Amino acid sequence: MIKHKEQRVGVFLDVANMYHSARNLFGAKVNFGNILLEAVASRKLIRAIAYVIRAESPEEQKFFEALDKQGFEVKMKDLQVFWGGQKKGDWDVGITVDAIKMGDRLDTIVLVTGDGDYLPLVGYLKNNKGCRVEVIAFSESCSSKLKEEADEFSDLSKDKRRFLLPIRPQLSKRRK
Question: Which residue from 6, 9, 28, 132 has the fewest beta carbons nearer than 10 Å?
Fold first, then answer.
């Protein structure tokens, strides 16, 4: 199936997966605005949802607002901290449920993640909902099986200038 302007598109962005991939692979931030443009590709955007984990850090509210301004609906959940200090925060089930619920109203579902846990979702959306499923991620951190199962895989690593932003060093506070 070729991309055409009448396709109804839903974009599901796993922010933590993309953030950590860019930081660990390239020491950079992700340009989520350009990723959304790539995902939509001049088609009809029905919904773009960014799934974030709230960790109560001072700069995160500005980041969440920036995602909103770029066209994402931001869904948040709190970071879970367990006894002993172990932390967990992911949206795998939430993204899966939303994609399945919206699948009947979309022609194309774009998953912005490299997480192989979404493999069953991709198969279900293709075989039971009749959706085209595209995956956008960094090839170095994307599950090879997820790449194979998707109808199309877009490798963000092929255009780092477009999809990455430098991490600005924090200005040191002046000493009094």
Answer: 6
> Which secondary-structure segment (H or E) carries 46?
strand 44-54
Q: At what angle do helices 32-40 and 15-26 cross, to 10 degrees?
A: 120
Domain residue spans in the chain?
Answer: 8-107+114-163
Contacts of 172 (CB under 8 A, 6+ apart): none
pLDDT 10s digits, 111-135: 999 999 999 999 999 999 999 999 9
| The two three-digit tokens of residue 124, written as one number | 């279900």
Please indicate, yes or no, whether the overall pTM of this predicted structure exceeds 0.85: yes
The dihedral region occupied by 172, where left means phi > 0, alpha psi between -120 and 50, and beta the remainder, is: beta
The H or E element that residue 136 is part of is: strand 132-137
3.30.565.10, 3.60.20.40, 3.40.50.150, 3.40.50.1010: CATH of 8-107+114-163:
3.40.50.1010
How many angstroms separate the CA atoms of 124 and 127, rounded?
Answer: 5
* Pairing between β-strand 164-166 and β-strand 28-30 as defined by DSSP bridges: antiparallel
One-letter identity of residue 112 = V
- Read off the tokens for 97: 């449920």
